[in-house]
Amino acid sequence: MKKASKIISNIITAVLFINLILMAFLVVSSKASGGEPQAFGYQLKTVLSGSMEPTFQTGSVIAVKPLSSEERKSLKEGDVITFQESEEKLVTHRIIGVTTSGEHVMYGTKGDNNKTADMNPVLSDNVKAIFTGFTIPYIGYFVDFAQTKEGSAILLIGPGLLLLGYAAFIIFQAIREIDPKNNKKDSEGKTA
C-alpha cells in the first residue's frame, strides 16, 4: 500500500512539474515571438474559422513551417499555406492554382469548406508558411487564452501554486508519519 502511494505521489509530482514547464514555455514563447508560440522551428497557429474543415477544425492548433523566399516561389497546387491577407490578418488556405509572370509567382487559394475561391491571388512574397499536417483539435482556444494577460498569469501561477500546495501536503503527511513513531518511542521509554 505504501509503495503504491509513493508511486502515485511521484506521478502527481511529475505531472504538475511538467505542466508548469509547459505552461511557462507556452506563455514565454508566445510573448517572445510577439504572437503565436513557436517550437523546434515551427509556428503554432490557432484556427479561427471553419473555412478549412474537415482538414482542421475551428479552435484547433496547427503547426506551420516558415518558408524562405525561394521556397515561397516553388509551392504547388494542393499545398496548404499561411499567407498575409491584410496587415492584421493571416489566412491558411489550399493552393488551387499557380500563375507565373516573369519572376513573380501568384497563387490562387481556397478554403476546403468554402464554395468559391478567394477573390485575390496571393503574391509569393505574402506567403509566410506551409502547413505541416500536424494539428491538435480544440487546443487553440486554450492558446488564445494563454496570450491574454489574465491567461498568462493564471497559466504561470496556477500550476506553480498547485505544485507548492502538493509539496506542502507531502511534507505535512511526512511529519504526521514521524510524530506517531516518536510518540510510540516516548511511551515505550516511560513504561520500560
Question: Overview of this structure, please?
Answer:
The structure is a single chain. The protein has an eight-stranded antiparallel β-sheet with strand order 1-2-3-8-4-5-6-7. The chain starts with a helix and ends with a helix. The chain is elongated. A hairpin with a 2-residue loop joins strand 4 and strand 5. It has helices spanning 2-33, 69-72, 139-146, 149-191; strands spanning 38-39, 42-46, 61-66, 80-86, 89-101, 104-110, 122-123, 127-136. Helix 1 (2-33) runs antiparallel to helix 4 (149-191). It contains four helices and eight strands. With 192 residues, the chain is an alpha+beta fold. The longest helix is centred in the last third of the chain and has 43 residues, at 149-191.
What is the 3D form? elongated
**What do the pLDDT scores average to?**
80
Structural class: alpha+beta
**Distance, first to last CA:** 32 Å
**Largest beta-sheet details:** 8 strands, antiparallel
Strand content: 25-35%
The helix tally amounts to 4
Q: State the order of secondary-structure elements, H for helix, E for strand.
A: HEEEHEEEEEHH
Unreliable residue stretches: none
State Rg. Answer: 26 Å
The residue fraction in helices comes out at: 40-55%
The tally of beta strands, per DSSP, is 8
Sequence of strands across the biggest β-sheet: 1-2-3-8-4-5-6-7
